[in-house]
Design brief:
Number of strands: 22
CATH architecture of one domain: Up-down Bundle
CATH class of one domain: Mainly Alpha
Structural class: alpha/beta
Helix content: 25-40%
Radius of gyration: 22 Å
Number of helices: 13
Shape: globular
């Protein structure tokens, strides 16, 4: 299938997580031919970092309090129409997942068990314990298989081909064969990862979609806002689900006193940091709750030697899903500098997108909901656009394809030359971002971060493997360069927002300014403008 120089699809979905799979299902159900492409292998889904269940107002008379919680935690930077639509659709999405086979926890009456998590005024998060993400993803994969949707890993997207304001196709590297391929598509859905690897240095979320947008001249939105995950186990990459806090888990500061959870996961993370550290006490899990989190207990025992019935779990909050990304309107269409200016045929969803749902901080239970909702919306919109469009600009795709071949050959020809390893670059970037782009920032530190990142961008990256076949080293170099570009744009956005709002705390400008409650747009050259909230 991927040996041809030019393929053609109605819809191409870029990504491998929940949002990508849900987008593919929605496009297929609208009658489109669709494929899913990702640089991850077919069995790997590193670009999806959901760490909680799904919020739905099952036990509430209306969705008004859910809506109010989203706006409160998002520091009034959320888009009202998006928030209302997403909260209103939550029960429908949960019911659909159950119909497809999701085995939710149940209460004594047989209804879904609902947990009250940080930032929620009422219990509204349904889950399957510690396996919600895994089971949801498996179900969506099964639905893709039923629709004969091809899902292909080991495909690195190099460029989006945009001509006269229309997205016409993609240029991609087949990692297995080393072949550069051109793909015609009537619609493209960017549904990949965020860019939290800039802080964590783990290579799991490299901001590929954001970099593609920047390379195409599309400004990114709200890059200064990145969530923190409070239940990150110290000295490991383990991130425990927030659902534990709705089942008897308690977060204590270093003084042994419980920390407040009313203001959401980011505020809890900041409280742990301010307290000089914290720990998770799971001794309060009841016998009813324990089986749903047995996997976590086993993992902590085998990897960390921690017996959760006897010991507390040391916590060191780390960067969670990035909130900013490719700006989209309510239909999932990518906007280009203003709400009424969109790239025809280009859509985004999930962590790749900035939809306006989260505002300046992400609340518990809304990440999975947002991924599913934005994926479905973008997939449907992409299929509708494809229905009335034709494949075009094959000559333009051929030109960009030729340029990509030249660049790739240049990478191979430089193999063995002196330079810095991509691993060292990522490590240095994570140190810079943790030091200067943590929850608390100031102008001096951000200026230092900008200079540090520029220095990293100026370095030559070494490549030792000269073979075009399965050259994952070249892919890592490409991804690292892209991550540096997105990180530089994020630092520029943080420097430009001279206020404290949500997950962005300026120690030199501590008070939020209502007049600045708009979206920041960051371009690849460091220019930062604003995009007003939709009325």
């Amino acid at each position: 299938m991927f040996g041809d120089i030019m393929q053609a699809w109605d819809v191409v979905v870029v990504g491998s997580g929940v949002a990508a799979l849900r987008a593919a299902i929605a496009s297929s159900d609208e009658g489109a031919t669709v494929t899913v492409l990702s640089s991850s292998t077919a069995s790997s889904f590193a670009d999806d970092t959901v760490v909680g269940g799904l919020s739905a107002s099952l036990g509430e008379a209306t969705t008004s309090e859910h809506v109010a919680d989203i706006h409160r935690i998002g520091a009034d930077l959320c888009e009202s129409d998006v928030v209302t639509s997403v909260a209103s659709s939550a029960i429908e999405h949960l019911a659909e997942l159950e119909k497809w086979g999701l085995n939710l926890r149940r209460d004594r009456n047989g209804a879904p068990h609902l947990a009250k998590l940080p930032g929620q005024s009422n219990a509204r998060t349904a889950s399957t314990g510690d396996s919600t993400l895994r089971e949801t993803r498996t179900i969506l994969q099964e639905q893709c298989m039923k629709r004969n949707i091809p899902i292909r890993g080991d495909i690195e997207i190099i460029d989006i081909v945009i001509h006269n304001g229309n997205a016409n196709g993609l240029i991609a590297l087949d990692i297995q064969t080393g072949e550069i391929i051109g793909i015609q598509s009537k619609s493209i859905v960017l549904a990949g990862s965020g860019f939290q690897s800039a802080w964590n240095g783990d290579g799991s979320a490299m901001g590929g979609a954001a970099n593609l947008a920047l390379r195409s001249g599309i400004p990114l939105a709200n890059l200064e806002f990145t969530s923190m995950h409070p239940l990150s186990v110290s000295d490991t990459n383990l991130q425990l689900p927030l659902d534990l806090l709705g089942s008897g888990g308690v977060v204590n500061g270093n003084d042994g006193q419980p920390l407040a959870m009313d203001d959401g996961p980011d505020a809890l993370s900041q409280a742990i940091i301010s307290a000089g550290g914290g720990s998770l006490d799971l001794s309060g899990l009841s016998p009813i709750d324990e089986p749903w989190f047995a996997g976590i207990a086993t993992n902590l025992q085998s990897r960390c030697g921690i017996d959760i019935s006897q010991e507390s779990i040391p916590l060191s909050p780390r960067a969670g899903p990035s909130i900013g990304g490719v700006p989209i309107n309510a239909a999932g269409s990518v906007v280009n500098g203003s709400w009424d200016s969109s790239i025809q045929g280009l859509f985004a969803a999930g962590d790749a997108a900035c939809s306006g749902l989260y505002g300046a901080a992400m609340n518990s239970g809304d990440h999975l909901l947002g991924s599913i909702t934005s994926g479905m919306t973008a997939g449907q919109s992409a299929a509708v656009h494809a229905r009335t469009s034709k494949h075009s600009s094959s000559s333009r795709i051929s030109v960009v394809l030729s340029s990509a071949h030249h660049d790739y050959d240049a990478h191979l020809s430089n193999a063995g030359s002196d330079g810095v390893s991509y691993g060292a670059i990522r490590s240095k970037l994570s140190i810079t971002m943790q030091k200067h782009m943590g929850p608390t920032r100031d102008a001096a530190g951000l200026a230092m971060a900008a200079a540090d990142i520029q220095n990293l961008q100026d370095l030559d990256l070494s490549i030792r493997d000269s073979s075009p076949v399965m050259n994952t080293e070249i892919v890592s170099v490409m991804q690292t360069k892209g991550l540096l570009a997105v990180s530089a744009a994020a630092v520029s956005a943080a420097l430009a927002r001279e206020e404290s709002r949500g997950a962005h705390i300026r120690s030199d400008h501590p008070e939020a300014d209502p007049s600045q409650a708009n979206h920041s747009l960051s371009s690849i050259d460091g220019t930062v403008t604003t995009l007003p909230l939709r009325s």
